[in-house]
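Loading example: each entry is read as two labelled lines plus one structure line.
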Amino acid sequence: MPSTLPGRALVVIPAWNEEEALPGVLKELSAIPADLDVVVVNDGSLDRTSEVARTHGARVLDLSVNLGVGGAMRAGFRYAMRSGYDVVVQLDADGQHDPSAIPQLLKALDDEHLDIVIGARFAGSGAYEASGPRRAAMRLFAVVLSRITHARLTDTTSGFKAMGPRAVALFSRDYPAEYLGDTVEALVIAARAGLRIGQVGVVMRPRQAGSPSHSPFKAALFLGRASFALLMALLRPRAQRVSALA
Amino acid sequence: MTLTSPVPIAITSAALIILLQLLRTRRMREKYASAWAILGVFIIVLAFFPSVLATLAHALGIAVPVNLLFFASLVVLYVVCIQASVELSSLGEDRRTLVEEVAMLHLEVEQHAGLLEDLAAKLEGRANDVRSTGSDELA
């Protein structure tokens, strides 16, 4: 049994068919010198993701149908709210995100009085490269979202993020399940609710299992869908401002 | 267009009766039926009084009356489809909330079961202690 007292931060790992990569990620997490609890949100996996997570000591939220990353994350945010966690860290299950960067994210959350800290791939460290339409889309998001959030953001589609109390409260109510809703649209929602957003450079690793999709057709499709998602996010009616808690 | 044709009247009446039956047995909710009902009544009126269509078309500046019929039908179909999509999205959102809720309850039950097991083990241990001390005293 995990301690009944909640740790300072809850690491939420949305996982869909990640039985191969997940054990490595969980092992790395347990080695981190920070007060972290871990919950794996099993997003309707068809493999043994849930069992694997349990045997490695993680708590598991089993979604009975696949809801997508946004759906899995909102479940995580709501669980965090209900269990009394102040801070949520979103971490991918495929091993791309290095858990040892979590203390850095948490530190930035505190030191810079931010509500959301993004672990950004293009911010100096690491050798992440995107090309073609995908790169163009990422640039576009970086420019548009930097303006909206009044911060210099270089990697808005990163799924490696730390969220403070105000962001957790907001996202447990409103976290889109649409395509790219969990990254681009979520940032728009947060910025409009008056949350402060920043970033920290992190090293991204190649996925530990499974293969990434990098065909030019898929990249072009990404650009189209992503632009549409951004446009819709900007056109949505504004959410209520989160009252200043901190 | 003076003779009233029985075929459209029969078909539309059958459609309306089916609609009514679906409503009566609560297999369809009233809010989805209104568009279909309006279309059905409209067609029956036209079947009895075909001249209405010509008059309406003329008033709207449509040269071929039947085009008005096609246009009106398309509008109704469009409204019904949009309504269905909106309902589908809202159902998806409901489902999402329920799935989250079930997952959280599942985890909670699991944790409570674990706590109960620990408690049972502890109680059993204590019972054993009491038994052994009791036998010590007897010895």
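The interface with chain A takes residues 95-96, 99-100, 102-104, 106-107, 111, 114-115, 118 of chain B (CB under 8 Å).
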